[in-house]
Amino acid sequence: MASSAPGQDVAMIENQTPPPIPTEELKYGGFTRFEIELEFVQSLSSPFYLNHLASQKYFENPAFIAYLKYLQYFAQPPYLKYLTYPGPTLNNLELLQQEKFRTDILSPDVVAKLVDEMIKAGIEWPERK
C-alpha cells in the first residue's frame, strides 16, 4: 500500500461535505457514513474518552484534528437533532478545536472538572425548564 504525502489526508477531510441524512447509501460494516460519524461524535461527550484519545496521541495527528473540525457540522440543523447529549457533545467538540485544550485534557484534574460540570448541568437543567 503506497503512503500518501503529508497533509494529503487533511486536505481530503477539509474538502468533504457532511453526509446526507441516513438513506440508502453505501454501507461500511453495515452502517452508513452518517451513522459512524454520529456514533463517534457522541462519544466525544465523555471526558474519559477525550483523555484516552489524548493519551494515545490522536490529538497530535493533523488529519485527526481536521476531522474534528469537519465534525462541527453536527452543530447545525438538520444534524443537531440526532445527538443524544447535544450540550456536552458540542461543548467538547468546540473545546477540541483549541490546541491548549487538546493538551490539557491529559490532566486528571481537567477530566474531573469536565465531569463535575456535566453533573452540575444535569442537576440544574430541570430547574431551567
Automatic annotation (TrEMBL):
Keywords recorded for this protein, A-Z: Activator, Nucleus, Transcription, Transcription regulation
InterPro entries for this protein: Med31_sf, Mediator_Med31
Protein name in UniProt: Mediator of RNA polymerase II transcription subunit 31
Source organism per UniProt: Oidiodendron maius (strain Zn)
UniProt-listed GO biological process terms: regulation of DNA-templated transcription
GO cellular component: mediator complex
Localization per record: Nucleus
Subunit structure: Component of the Mediator complex.
UniProt KW Phosphoprotein keyword: no
UniProt function note: Component of the Mediator complex, a coactivator involved in the regulated transcription of nearly all RNA polymerase II-dependent genes. Mediator functions as a bridge to convey information from gene-specific regulatory proteins to the basal RNA polymerase II transcription machinery. Mediator is recruited to promoters by direct interactions with regulatory proteins and serves as a scaffold for the assembly of a functional preinitiation complex with RNA polymerase II and the general transcription factors.
Gene3D superfamilies to which the protein is assigned, alphabetical: Mediator of RNA polymerase II, submodule Med31 (Soh1)
PANTHER family linked to this entry: MEDIATOR OF RNA POLYMERASE II TRANSCRIPTION SUBUNIT 31 (PTHR13186)
Origin superkingdom: Eukaryota
Signal peptide: none
UniProt-recorded Gene Ontology molecular function terms: transcription coregulator activity
Similarity comment text for this entry: Belongs to the Mediator complex subunit 31 family.
